[in-house]
Each structure stands twice: as C-alpha cells, then as structure tokens.
Amino acid sequence: MRGTLPLARAGNWFVPQRLTATMNEALNATEIPFGTVVAPLRPIRRILTAAIQPQPEIILEQVALIRSGSGPALALVKEAYLSELVSAAPEPALWPRARDQRAERSALPTVRRER
C-alpha cells in the first residue's frame, strides 16, 4: 500500500508447524507482514515464476518459495503487482541524486537471495 492506494496483492500459503507459536499468533491476530514476522528465521526467497502481464490492472505476477535460512520451506507466495505501482512512483526529476553511491548502497538493508 502507498497510503490508501494498493500496489500489490499477495496470497501466502505457509506451514504453521514450521513457525513458532508467537509467529503464528502474530500472523493470525495482526496485520504484520509475513516477512516481518518470520525475519528471525532468516528467510531466503526463491522466485519460481515471473511473468509480465498484458492486463491493464496487473503488470507483473510472480510465484516465490520462501525457505528458512536453515533450509525447510516455510511458504509459497503468489504476488500480483498492480499498474498503480508504476503510476505511484515519483517523477525521475524529483529523485534525489546520490553523492556517493557506495555510501548509499551500504545504507541499504542486506537482502539474501538464492538462485
């Protein structure tokens, strides 16, 4: 979401037995995103399929497998990125210019990816 504007839809099928009781409670009782809840498991995301869609509402669909850092599969997620994602982006002329790209990259959070 960006304010009240939806930018993506996701369906997340997860294995509750592979999460802690606290994680399951958070997922069942709150709106905290799955990735935030399972972050202590150091999840790894592997994109299984990705396809650009010719539909006016959906610009990209993808399916990804989420595994814990120690290996077991935690979830399968199907995401649809909406065309509003592109229209909600600020104009390039408004983007701040990076003075030092190395400093900018080091300020970004580390993301683990598996190929």
Automatic annotation (TrEMBL):
List the source organism. Answer: Microvirga lotononidis
This protein's name: Uncharacterized protein
Q: Which domain of life is it from?
A: Bacteria
Record InterPro entries: Chorismate_lyase_/UTRA_dom_sf
